[in-house]
Design goal:
5 helices, homodimer, 2 domains, mainly alpha, DNA-binding, Arc Repressor Mutant, subunit A
Chain lengths: ~130, ~130
Amino acid sequence: MFINLDFESNEPIYQQLVHQIIEGIARKELLPGEGLPSVRSLAADIGINLHTVNKAYQQLKQDGFILIHRQKGVVVNPDGVPKADDSFKNQLNKNLRPLIAESICRDVSEEEFLKLCSTIFETYKGGST
Amino acid sequence: MFINLDFESNEPIYQQLVHQIIEGIARKELLPGEGLPSVRSLAADIGINLHTVNKAYQQLKQDGFILIHRQKGVVVNPDGVPKADDSFKNQLNKNLRPLIAESICRDVSEEEFLKLCSTIFETYKGGST
DNA sequence: ATATCTGTTGCAGTAATGGTATAACAGTTA
DNA sequence: TAACTGTTATACCATTACTGCAACAGATAT
């Protein structure tokens, strides 16, 4: 499994789980229709509680990343993740704003900022590794 | 005062305070050397506890945005905010990553993402309003 | 039918966090 | 001396993150 948690982080475990699975989808390591481990097995796998995994799955389901067939298990959304709507773009804007504000204060140029973003985008293109 | 808090938000009050002050500095509404209200008066002003304001100020001080002369009050760093170091850029990278990952999943192109960032940058250029 | 897998739900307990309240201390300034 | 500043301490409450144990409901395989 590609899950790698940092129990020392102040980022909640369930949130880390959500991010890592989204990363997996973004870099095409997790393909539409692909199955994910059950809440119990994944919990046992990484040594955390069933509820913590369930919370992550619930959020991913809520956001359309995965589907949960009651007894068949968890599956990456076969139709692909729902495309960005206004709500998402709004949220994105809201999240980016403070990062950009602080960057400006710290003399990070727009050019440099955009370059950093591009660099990150790159890391999601070369699917292998 | 330009402080505008949302008590319904799940973003902590002290964090909102931090962000708004950073925004103020970023858009040059708060200039280097400019004084900020005391913890008590600001707390009374927006109807929150002294400790909450203090927590925000402490974080801003920690990050070099403001200076606190023991009895003279709080002042926007006259030497300007410390420029971005590796630690900051690292943090920035870490914060941007999940936003970009989800954007990719939701079919937001790199171009569109960068454009959004540019749009946000623009809002910090026209200092007036 | 029975056993076993699945997600889901409930309740309880611990620890940490965010916020409030009251109070006091230590310097500075008027 | 009085009034202001930031700072610190203690206590309290609500919420959140996480854990643990347990049970329920539906599907599947034997």
